[in-house]
From TrEMBL:
GO terms for cellular component: plasma membrane. Belongs to the TRAFAC class translation factor GTPase superfamily. Classic translation factor GTPase family. LepA subfamily. Keywords: Cell membrane, GTP-binding, Hydrolase, Membrane, Nucleotide-binding, Protein biosynthesis. Residues 4-186 form the Tr-type G domain. InterPro entries: EF-4, EFG_III/V, EFG_V-like, EFTu-like_2, G_TR_CS, LepA_C_sf, LepA_CTD, LepA_IV. This is Elongation factor 4. It comes from Shimia isoporae. It is an enzyme of class 3 (hydrolase). One of its GO terms (molecular function) is translation elongation factor activity.
Amino acid sequence: TDLSKIRNFSIVAHIDHGKSTLADRLIQETGTVEDRDMKEQLLDSMDIERERGITIKANTVRIDYKADDGETYVLNLIDTPGHVDFAYEVSRSMKAVEGSLLVVDSTQGVEAQTLANVYQAIEADHELVPVLNKIDLPASDCDRVAEQIEDVIGIDATGAIQVSAKTGQGIHDTLEAIVRELPAPTGNIDAPLKAMLVDSWYDAYLGVIVLVRIMDGTLKKGQRVKFMSNGTLHNVDRVGVFRPEMQMVDSLGPGEIGFLTASIKQVRDTRVGDTITNDRHGTEEALPGFKPAQPVVFCGLFPVDSAEFEDLRDAIDKLALNDASFSFEMETSAALGFGFRCGFLGLLHLEVIRDRIEREYNIELITTAPSVIYHVFMKDGEMIELHNPADMPDMSKVDHLEEPRIKATILVPDEYLGDVLKLCQDRRGIQLDLTYAGSRAMCVYDLPLNEVVFDFYDRLKSVTKGYASFDYQMEDYREDNLVKMSVLVNDEPVDALSMMVHRDRAEQRGRAMCEKLKTLIPRHMFKIPIQAAIGGKVIARETLSALRKDVTAKCYGGDATRKRKLLDKQKAGKKKMRQFGKVDIPQEAFISALKMD
Ligand code: GDP
Ligand code: MG
């Protein structure tokens, strides 16, 4: 294809501002997909994405567009994920295209993820085309939002395109703007092959599918290529493009985006950001490398029914094949038996994986408290990376601990600002900045990641009635007074409930935990002490009184079926319990106990 007739772009937006709907409309308007095959949100393929309306994996589509100038252009759209956990995927797919549509909901305005994503687009040197969406709604206010884009982002938005991705209004203007305002890619067809590995995923029929952007040279079917990061060689079986279904082509040239397959078995064998070249006389210089995505949040996953451990292993193996950013290792817990310690990019990533195991593999799970990686500096000078509070070494041998801190940006309407500041303060936050954009405040906070991983986002939503938006990036590790808090039920430590806390908050946290557990653990025939402790020292205590009433006593032995029903019901209830010493703890207790109110 003639380079001057190619436009490569992505769409950046805050979640729910209409990115997927706009992509669907662009595909439909250009007749890429027949109307009868058009289903909503064509590019969001996973069930969980559809249900939650989020895009997790980057997706791609090639569109042919006959422009008003009479020429036909090839438009390659890469749909990037819209959530903080996947910021890394956004940054890598950005490098494969020259421009972005900046979509802002004209009834809402700029939000935290708009900013986070637009900064990444600017970092990748993108040309930006502002698009104001949802103009069909009465609350739409294009002038106000255009002004806000200029104030907050600092780009000219006077010519912003006004669109309704719902009705199709403005879609033609958008396509014209893509052709007119975005730069064509550059590249040398006579140079050796240089292709960027943008993304990869596993397909049951074709093996690993590798999404590539060709920089120089040509990629052909049958060619032997080298992945430069590890020197592995592969024979290219197929070359193709997404329309959005796969269509095979003979070759891809400079500026083009498409895929290859090469009988690669595991996603782990493909490194995002890698450079692909010819096996002989290849390019000398690899593209600037991308950093691999690092898990930052860890938790234990255990089957409720311990007989399902092997099934869980299978499920995790399969999911990991397709998700290089998800890490795991076996873990045994005195309380929960065999399970896995897993690492995730963030809380949403954790939720997505957990959901898929429960849904697609039908395994009920107990999830332990999410934890971050602490750096434990020992008195002998050694530094240990602590992924699991249960592995915390004896404090007498520890010199100090460091924890990861983040920089969080929160946008919130004025009236909720006080509650947001209080929440950040309660979570050991340090205010870095507070500015206004119209009637919205933008606060920037330095926060410990461990205070954010559990339920910060839920709390933020509830105190602002859903009007705040939130985004964060990792900053650095810093020393603080951190301790391990253990929980004992009936004098038995429940390792799955132990957690790292700040010393100043330990009593408060311990008390809250004991009180909560008291409501979550059913009463038994005997008295049960529930305690929180640091080292050997008890810092909080509750007692669950003994149960007296016999549940079947009221049946007088007269109605046998009713009695059996009651017992069956009890048994069913039991299945979801775990036994600790003599005490049964229901699985919900593990999750609920760790939420703070
Ligand atoms: P994304 O999260 O940015 O991909 O947003 P979606 O495309 O999933 O859109 C979020 C919601 O807004 C969905 O319910 C869409 O139907 C709706 N939506 C998107 N564009 C428009 C529009 O132009 N007008 C109206 N009224 N609703 C829209
Ligand atoms: Mg979407």
